Amino acid sequence: MEIFIQQIINGLTTGSVYALVALGYTMVYGVIQLINFAHGEVVMIGAMVAFSVITALAGTAAPLPPAAILLAGVAAAIPACMAIGYLLERIAYRPLRHAPRLAPLITAIGMSIILQHLALLVWSRNPMAFPQIVDNPVFTIGGAAITGVQIAIILLSVVLMAALTWFVYRTRFGIAIRATAENVHVASLMGVDANRVIAATFVIAAALAAVAGVMVGTYYGITHYTMGFMLGLKAFSAAVLGGIGNLAGAMLGGILLGLVEALGAGYIGDLTDICKWPLMKEAVAERCAADGHLILMGSNYQDVFAFLVLIAVLVFRPSGLLGERVSERA
Amino acid sequence: MSASAPILEVRDLHVSYGSIAAVKGISFEVATGETVCLIGANGAGKTTTLKALARLLPAHGTLHFDGHSLLHRPAHELIGAGMTLVPEGRGIFARLTVAENLDMGAYCRSDRAGIDADRDRVFGLLPRLKERARQVAGTLSGGEQQMLAIGRALMSRPRLLLLDEPSMGLAPMMVQKVFEVIRSVAAQGVTILLVEQNARLALSVASRGYVMESGGITLSDSAPALLANPGVREAYLGE
Ligand SMILES: Nc1ncnc2c1ncn2[C@@H]1O[C@H](COP(=O)(O)OP(=O)(O)O)[C@@H](O)[C@H]1O
Ligand SMILES: [Mg+2]
């Protein structure tokens, strides 16, 4: 039971991060039907910028309070990522708006590689320790541990998702974004400048990615120029799981994916411990007597779950959990 | 033709899809306050003409709205200038609520009080929309969707309303209702350019009409004259 609660806590934490990143994929897809494969790299840049700012500020003779330094890291990462999101759209995708779908897709992959290598040049090819400057108290719930950082990640994600939902559903510009997502031509007849809406979508997605990047750095204590790849792939899976193009779907998909992954990682060792399989016990009794365990797949298989879930969704519910339409618009 | 200056003036308009010419040098005009219709068979080029006016398609020729050229203005600036298109197939935002669709019609406006007044006016004209204001627009019937598309356009307080086949796909009862609404909009002083395949209906609300055939305008006359024209009667009124 402790393991279960512990993995729920861990899953909610990573799931919150996946949700924030998945929202970026889904918003951009919703508006221009582009899978922005460089989005994971925007998360990475967010983590990197925060890393530099926090390292610099924490290293001064009379450093600011830790919370202020962390905040400064976030405050620097957000505009830096917003600028990258804007430039990506402006330079890489806008000129291809009316090109065959494959062109922007391949460009997105190219942008992802370029951003990775820019980060490699600016920062390092090696993993860098993300400064752990804030206190991280540990609380216990039902025998499981939850850290201050985990609580902060989950709460901040909830706040950001609520704010985004309010923006998209309650403000004039938010309604214009949804209208553009549905029919860009009619939206322009209503006076909506599609270029502005599309640019705004990229910028908002990048701001969420920046926050997610700082969360990842703080949570795992490490940044690396390739960190955006796997994270982006998983967040994209989360968006597809929820139904790409659907905001609530991205949130649900992110949280679910985090939970599936954490629970999978928590239990796969036990489930694939041959010493516990009735039929196999006898055959491997000697080894089991020696080690007590004979585990086929350890928690290092965790990454597999995200993609098993993605494949299962694509097979059984291609439009995702909350997605309504699969058909591509002409 | 008309005493007042034309609000819309089209001269030698050409529109093509790639190498296929769909509109081949047409000229027409609409004067402030009048209701003019453009009738013609399926494929004549009516929708193409309206899309070119709304800047959704690139075009050549002279396109003047209110004395200013439209040719190099982006589509999203026209509604603010006073020209609003209700597109073929209605083009409502199915996943937005009825109220949100109406708000989109007023997207280019910032006069709160005026917008509220116009919403009340639209609800007065189209009471069904008021009942369904909180409903997602995709759940409306075809006729209600057409009403919504017209109501949404009215929210922009247009000086020129372009209507593309408002009767399309509607049951006869509903067509009558939609045309009653168009009549009352015209009566409120909105200038209308109405495109229709249903020529009899169109000529019943318009004071003048143009007949379009394979990308060109072949005939232009007052509505009563067109209704009496033997060629029109045979080709478009099914007699
Ligand atoms: N997207 C398009 N691509 C190529 N040809 C088109 C397209 N849309 C319309 N056309 C052609 O242009 C001509 C005029 O069409 P349209 O303006 O839709 O006619 P109408 O509205 O009078 O029925 C038709 O021959 C039609 O086949
Ligand atoms: Mg048509």
Structure description:
With 330 residues, chain A is mostly helical. Chain A has helices spanning 2-32, 39-58, 66-93, 102-122, 148-170, 172-182, 184-189, 194-220, 227-242, 247-271, 278-281, 285-291, 302-316; strands spanning 128-129, 138-141, 144-147, 222-223. Chain A has a single domain, classed as ABC transporter involved in vitamin B12 uptake, BtuC (Orthogonal Bundle), CATH 1.10.3470. In chain A, helix 2 (39-58) packs antiparallel against helix 3 and helix 2 (39-58) runs parallel beside helix 4. Helices cover 37% and strands 28% of the residues of chain B. In chain B, helix 3 (98-105) runs parallel beside helix 6 (142-154) and helix 6 runs parallel beside helix 7. The chains are: A mainly alpha (330), B alpha/beta (239). At the A-B interface, helix 6 and helix 7 of A face helix 2 and helix 3 of B. Bound molecules: adenosine-5'-diphosphate and magnesium ion. Magnesium ion binds next to helix 1 of chain B.
Largest sheet of chain B: 6 strands, mixed
Highest-level CATH class of chain A: Mainly Alpha
Mean pLDDT of chain B: 94
For the largest interface, the chains and their residue counts are:
A-B, 17 and 26 residues
Whole-number total of structural domains of chain A: 1
Distance N terminus to C terminus of chain A? 51 Å
- The number of E-state strands of chain B comes to 10
What is the name of the CATH topology of chain A? ABC transporter involved in vitamin B12 uptake, BtuC
Beta fraction of chain B = 25-35%
User: So what's the overall shape of chain B?
Assistant: globular
Q: Would you identify the CATH architecture of chain A?
A: Orthogonal Bundle
- From the N-terminal CA to the C-terminal CA of chain B, the straight-line distance is 28 Å
Which shape of chain A, going by the Cα principal axes?
globular
Order of secondary-structure elements of chain A: HHHHEEEHHHHEHHHHH
**Uncertain stretches of 5 or more adjacent residues of chain B:** none
* Structural class category of chain B: alpha/beta
Helical fraction of chain A equals over 70%
Summarize the biggest pleated sheet of chain A.
2 strands, antiparallel
